């Protein structure tokens, strides 16, 4: 975002998001202090037996400032992490899974919380308040307790924390993120849709009362729970809509766009389950303000994300593909003219497990800890 | 469609579309005359080396009134069909591929034309006018020569035939189809979108000036040509929009909806390429007429397709999946309330190669030949 | 098999396996008697909520002599079948699921038993002995009670039935199958491997003491149970061996090959899980008898399966693909020279749910009921 | 390999393959000299428009000592690399594609050659002899000119270079690799099969005259050429053997095993095409020397690869999966008892594009340049 200010100088490293990944990867350890013991933080991953937990571990493996010291998984406690996620058997120094009640918190500087919705608030409430927390659940995303109760079916159990939590759509709320102690990491759909829509609505270029989001997601977003509906045979070679008109990411998107619009916004949001492990696309059908063209929207996004490392507005006419972000923290977006006058088509693609979850979580932790924002996020997309 | 009248009595078989497939399958040979030699038609498949051609052969293999006597494929001429499509090696009595110029037309009663767009018109122009033709290309779908020239980049070369051609969206135009000699088989997207939209627009339940179609298709729609962009590695585990605002199925859909609305209609249409071999879904975002609800739309579709064998309006709240029509000629549809007031979400799923191409083609030929409409189309969807 | 004799004349229909599917499909209702009420059998599918049960229903939907009157599924009892398998919602007259204890057996002529291993024997023991039963579980495949106890970890609970059961590898044991009341339908791997190996071992062309089977199967073979290891994300874009040296199909294959060899045979058998819904290939590495070539093996298989409808020995040099049998009851096989002297490579492909389970089950029931063997099995493979 | 000796001290960095990736990633820039301009090598990728070329670029993006200055692609010359591989659009400072004839070789320190077989030798012959070259084609793998002529159908055009070339199966030939100027990077199948077989044959634990390799590979191994047989629809949901008894990787494997055995070795080798983008497994059926057990083989491999970073012998009984190495440079292997006495089953999995091609290529270049062997190869497998 254009409005982003320079990072605080906590580590003497100002944000240089326009700089290339590689340059940063090389540069990151450059300040001698970065090699000091005090700059290696001890990190816990709570709920490490799910896909977002595993993805946190995968990304952190290349992080020079992170040592993963705690992995929890109540049902899998006692197991080696490589028994649960053999693809990470080659990671070094990964601890065994333990029960969350058995964690020695004095040995932890920060935590990724990858627990299921609802149970998260109870857990975080009892953590030492000194701990920095990136919460990947939905528990602290909705600011309005009534809205939370309406969509999640029960009163929130940690209202104080809910007030404290910072919503971590990094490129939009970077300044708040830097100061956050408890960070509510955005949902995958809210990330993919708000990244383009927030600036457009905020600038008044898109009418806020007729936003239609046709969202498509890979299956990993549904987690690793053993459900019949997510079996290979049930998913392969087929697609379907789901939760039409009732998905819980709807109020989260509406919250952000309402803030951008300065008035309550309702959206049309229809998610689709794709036969993909990873990958998410939002195809957004918007009405433009009078006199505004698709090109104007595109230009505005270009300016809004100028210098951003992870958000790329593609050249005019180039269509984003989910496969071009697979495994990476990038968001690709573009705007196209619609055949219907006064309309435009906005497209954004992310990897739901990276920019839509663990990658953005690490991006946020980097900021919260004063590390360069792109640290350990330099992996390019894997294709084919 | 409600308005459908009883079939002509050509074969003494009135349409009984509400009757089960199996009942018909059993019943179909029942009339003694159906076993007569005169009721076995000799069929040619022109352009049999592509996927739609192969699908025609697959379906016809179970047809008691069809004998496939000619298969053309200019590049593959001389080859056994099983060399080109080994999965059909077990079909009986399938002829070799020949060049189209070498066909003895006196030995053919009807033809499926599965040739590429543009070349088709030149070929069909030179066929004996006695031949019944089901054309699966786009050449005869657009009635307006100007529109054809605009979207296809050249003047139409067979304007007389274009006038004669009947547009074969079977459930909508059944009466005309029965009398057709040259049938323009609808495109896959136009089938999937018009089946629900046509009756809704015609009844004035949906506003015709703000119809948004988010369409998703499997790769087989792109044919068997060896293109880099359709390689397994380019498609697997990824999705993308394509031809945003410029797909040639757009004017075809607009033509149908304009007729339904009684006034010119423009639509928003964005196709997406899915990592599926087969399967198509259109998710349609529509504005309802004042006072009309999503339930009203659903009820209207139920009535419109009451008794139709191949079009099923699902029970309220049940979401269509592409995998539930794979390999079959069925269209599944439903309507859902939208969170945005005055809007509804309409969903339709088909197999793009069956109801979206070869299956509907055979359904049309059945009508054109006076055979029971469901003959050889009784295969249920294959899952998993 | 060459040795197959004409069918018994129970229904006055001699086997004509060399006749084409279509010819048979047309011909099947031809004998006037076939239309009599007495020729429509009432069929129960026990355990209809799994993939093999669904596949039985899919295939039977095109069968002129079968009316499915009972579907059981203890956990899903009370549900419409279309709630459990929406792809079969278009099947006509399919009953609701009931508990097995609530079945009125007087209304059933024959049953497909698709229950889990071990529970099957208890269930079948209590069925009326007049009922013809095709059992798709492993419960009655092993003839030797000791072998059963060794591989399944408990004594067999229905030893009398075990003696009575006929092993239904149709092309090999057709004569016994015709007379069977209780049929043990072969496992998928045993079908795919024995079809080529049995005749070769029996003829002494392959040495029985060094047979190596590298087997590859789609995931549907593992059933519809909600297991983490079968989730889409766990299977997609990856393969692995499993149950190396310990798969329960091993003794079943050994039983058949021992019979063929006239002496105990042990095999090397390594199954692999493929990211396929359907499809199975066995690649078999065999030592030939002195002086015997790969071509000799191929020729022998050609003779052995001459006139067989469902078993095809491909032309010399042509490689079988699983995709060329998907959805069909065919087995494709071939033999290739090995670079190692004295060795040959034998390949066989089937659809594990059809020829490897429900299709062969129906093929067997057809014989047991005196119907033409290919009835309702005329569907060609679906590709792409 | 056990026999591996310490690296030469060219850069003062001894090999520390047992050290963790992360430790190395952090440590790699540690020697102050590593940051010197002289330690950044200018790298050309010849044939960068194919999958192995793209994979080289992806991996090099994280390499602190590499600057990619030249990308060639004769057909795509003039295009931005991101037009050809959009997933790498986020890589920094990637040059445009140029014709190979337009390269200024004075600006290149080393080259990855990803050109097609046969054309490679002509190209490399004309490169400056000062250039270090890692050749990913098959052109320099076979040492015997007769064998090359036999398998490739023509005389080799650069026999001098063929003599000079070092075969780069890194863990086996590390010492030679370090001194290489022209490196013949092994084929994917030869890597996957020789890694376990070479030490076992060399130690005399496996009989060399009856080695059977059932190999399974993803489609990316076939490259990005637009072939009908590699279209999504032709590959998805199906598998097949190919090139039975005639694959060109056969003599390459035989060459290595012959050297290990000290006598000519012939193998049985049957490759299978999987519906995977990436992933390779060799399932190897071997006869053990008298008295030698599967456990003995496993123990020997454990010792042989002790301390190796990229080769992992899994714990007893744990089965390697291709999905656990996807995107990474690791090889996972294990040995299992066979039911046939005197036999064992050896399994190895790699990512065919990484350890089977570009990753091993970079591993070799690291050694040739005197950089730590694991530099830029620290990425863990991506799952799901």
From TrEMBL, chains A, B, C, D:
<dbReference type="InterPro" id="IPR050085">
    <property type="entry name" value="AGPR"/>
</dbReference>
<keyword id="KW-0028">Amino-acid biosynthesis</keyword>
<protein>
    <recommendedName>
        <fullName>Probable N-acetyl-gamma-glutamyl-phosphate reductase, chloroplastic</fullName>
        <ecNumber>1.2.1.38</ecNumber>
    </recommendedName>
</protein>
<dbReference type="InterPro" id="IPR036291">
    <property type="entry name" value="NAD(P)-bd_dom_sf"/>
</dbReference>
<dbReference type="GO" id="GO:0070401">
    <property type="term" value="F:NADP+ binding"/>
</dbReference>
<dbReference type="InterPro" id="IPR023013">
    <property type="entry name" value="AGPR_AS"/>
</dbReference>
<feature type="domain" description="Semialdehyde dehydrogenase NAD-binding">
    <location>
        <begin position="42"/>
        <end position="180"/>
    </location>
</feature>
<comment type="pathway">
    <text>Amino-acid biosynthesis; L-arginine biosynthesis; N(2)-acetyl-L-ornithine from L-glutamate: step 3/4.</text>
</comment>
<keyword id="KW-0560">Oxidoreductase</keyword>
<dbReference type="InterPro" id="IPR058924">
    <property type="entry name" value="AGPR_dimerisation_dom"/>
</dbReference>
<dbReference type="GO" id="GO:0003942">
    <property type="term" value="F:N-acetyl-gamma-glutamyl-phosphate reductase activity"/>
</dbReference>
<comment type="similarity">
    <text>Belongs to the NAGSA dehydrogenase family. Type 1 subfamily.</text>
</comment>
<keyword id="KW-0521">NADP</keyword>
<dbReference type="InterPro" id="IPR000534">
    <property type="entry name" value="Semialdehyde_DH_NAD-bd"/>
</dbReference>
<keyword id="KW-0055">Arginine biosynthesis</keyword>
<dbReference type="InterPro" id="IPR000706">
    <property type="entry name" value="AGPR_type-1"/>
</dbReference>
<feature type="active site">
    <location>
        <position position="188"/>
    </location>
</feature>
<dbReference type="GO" id="GO:0051287">
    <property type="term" value="F:NAD binding"/>
</dbReference>
<dbReference type="Pfam" id="PF22698">
    <property type="entry name" value="Semialdhyde_dhC_1"/>
</dbReference>
<dbReference type="GO" id="GO:0006526">
    <property type="term" value="P:L-arginine biosynthetic process"/>
</dbReference>
<dbReference type="Pfam" id="PF01118">
    <property type="entry name" value="Semialdhyde_dh"/>
</dbReference>
């Amino acid at each position: 975002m254009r409005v982003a200010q320079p990072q605080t100088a906590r580590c003497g490293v100002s944000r240089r998001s326009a700089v290339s990944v590689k340059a940063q990867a090389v540069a990151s350890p450059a300040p001698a202090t970065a090699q000091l013991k005090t700059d290696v933080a001890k990190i816990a991953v709570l709920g490490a037996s799910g896909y977002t937990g595993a993805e946190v571990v995968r990304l952190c493996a290349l992080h020079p400032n992170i040592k993963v010291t705690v992995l929890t998984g109540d049902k899998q406690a006692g197991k080696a992490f490589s028994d649960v996620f053999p693809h990470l058997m080659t990671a070094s120094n990964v601890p065994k899974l333990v029960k969350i009640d058995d964690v020695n918190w004095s040995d932890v500087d920060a935590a990724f919380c990858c627990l299921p919705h609802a149970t998260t608030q109870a857990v975080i409430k009892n953590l030492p308040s000194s701990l920095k927390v990136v919460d990947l659940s939905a528990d602290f995303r909705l600011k309005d307790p009534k809205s939370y109760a309406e969509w999640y079916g029960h009163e929130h159990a940690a209202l104080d924390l809910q007030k404290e939590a910072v919503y971590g759509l990094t490129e939009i709320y970077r300044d708040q993120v830097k100061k956050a102690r408890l960070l509510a990491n955005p949902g995958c759909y809210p990330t993919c849709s708000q990244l383009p829509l927030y600036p457009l609505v905020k600038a008044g270029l898109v009418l806020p009362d007729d936003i239609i989001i046709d969202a498509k997601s890979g299956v990993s977003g549904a987690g690793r729970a053993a459900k019949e509906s997510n079996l290979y045979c049930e998913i392969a070679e087929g697609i379907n809509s789901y939760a039409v008109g009732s998905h819980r990411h709807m109020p989260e998107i509406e919250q952000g766009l309402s803030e951008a619009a300065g008035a309550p916004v309702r959206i049309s949001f229809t998610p689709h389950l794709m036969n993909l492990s990873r990958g998410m696309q939002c195809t957004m059908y918007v009405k433009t303000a009078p006199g505004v063209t698709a090109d104007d929207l595109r230009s505005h996004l270009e300016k809004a994300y100028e210098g951003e490392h992870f958000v790329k507005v593609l050249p005019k006419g180039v269509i984003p593909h989910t496969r071009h972000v697979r495994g990476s923290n990038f968001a690709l977006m573009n705007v196209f003219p619609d055949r219907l006058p006064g309309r435009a088509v906005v497209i954004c693609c992310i990897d739901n497990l990276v920019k839509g979850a663990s990658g953005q979580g690490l991006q946020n932790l980097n900021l919260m800890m004063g590390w360069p924002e792109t640290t350990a996020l330099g992996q390019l997309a894997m294709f084919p």
